[in-house]
Specification:
- This protein is an alpha/beta fold.
- It has two domains: about 140 residues, HAD superfamily/HAD-like (Rossmann fold, 3-Layer(aba) Sandwich), CATH 3.40.50; about 80 residues.
- It is built from nine helices and seven strands, in the order E-E-H-H-H-H-H-E-H-E-H-E-H-E-E-H.
- A seven-stranded parallel beta sheet has the order 1-7-6-5-2-3-4, sandwiched between helices.
- Helix 1 packs antiparallel against helix 4, helix 2 packs across helix 3 and helix 3 packs antiparallel against helix 4.
- The protein is elongated, with a radius of gyration of 20 Å.
- It starts with 8 loop residues before the first strand and ends with a helix.
- The N terminus is likely disordered.
- It holds the Pfam family Hydrolase.
- This is Haloacid dehalogenase domain protein hydrolase.
- It comes from Thermotomaculum hydrothermale.
- GO terms for molecular function: metal ion binding; phosphatase activity.
Length: about 250
């Protein structure tokens, strides 16, 4: 069990007193994409496939990427997360450049977008090293709830493909994960926020809003982060940072 008494405590840190201010949690909420398995990598592959195609059509790669990011951010707010939303962002980007250059969108382009969407949807969802063993350990001690965001069918299919559903008491898919969503969960699931901790890789979606809602947060710091999820961690003594999922066995 880890001491939460120091702001943004980073494990391991042997000089800290881990015998005081320990938290006895009852519920552990766990993010899915880029926490339990790789997700960002597949979206980047999909993005590069689209950019490569547009570059071959004579369009500037950086300019196309700028508009793709613009439409991608816009679709997240309007459509949500997932393969369908990313396809919409590509469609908007394609139309932007083709209309300006008087080019016509044909079957080649439409088939490509559908192929990219299918690639994202069918990503393998292979758990990171140590995830299964760590979940087995946590399941013996806590109520585990998988908490992710995106298109419900798509996200639940990922969970099934990963083989991890058996470790969770339930799986919840939200359209987004903001402070108000965590507060709604506290009420609907009758959670005690003082005995609930959120585990994830995103400060913006997993840690900051959960802590603002009164929970605790454990950030798994990844080397790469989706630009949309980048946000500075809030200053709170309810947050600790680890480097991999399997380190949870050392802090919970």
């Amino acid at each position: 069990m880890l001491n939460f008494s120091d702001s943004h405590l980073e494990y391991p840190c042997s000089t800290r007193d881990t015998k005081s201010n320990k938290k006895q949690f009852e519920v552990v909420l766990i993010d899915a994409d880029d926490t339990l398995w790789e997700n960002y990598f597949y979206f980047e592959q999909a993005r590069n496939t689209f950019l490569n195609f547009m570059e071959k059509q004579g369009f500037d790669r950086e300019n196309v990427n700028y508009y793709l990011n613009h439409f991608d951010t816009k679709r997240l707010e309007e459509i949500g997360f997932g393969s369908n939303g990313f396809k919409k962002a590509m469609e908007f980007t394609l139309s932007q450049f083709y209309n300006e250059s008087k080019k016509e969108i044909g079957t080649t382009e439409l088939k490509l977008l559908e192929k990219i969407k299918t690639f994202i949807y069918n990503q393998p969802s292979i758990p990171y090293p140590g995830v299964k063993e760590t979940l087995e350990y946590l399941k013996r001690k806590y109520k585990l709830i998988l908490l992710t965001k995106g298109e419900e069918k798509e996200q639940l299919n990922k969970v099934e493909r990963s083989g991890l559903s058996r470790f969770f008491n339930s799986s919840i898919v939200l359209n987004d994960k903001k402070e108000e969503h965590y507060r709604e969960l506290i009420v609907s699931l009758k959670l005690n926020p003082e005995k609930t901790v959120m585990v994830g890789n995103s400060p913006k979606s997993d840690i900051n809003p959960a802590v603002k809602a009164g929970m605790y947060g454990i950030l798994i710091q990844r080397e790469t982060q989706w630009e949309y999820e980048e946000e500075e961690l809030i200053d709170s003594d309810r947050i600790i940072i680890i480097r991999s999922f399997k380190e949870l066995k050392n802090v919970l």
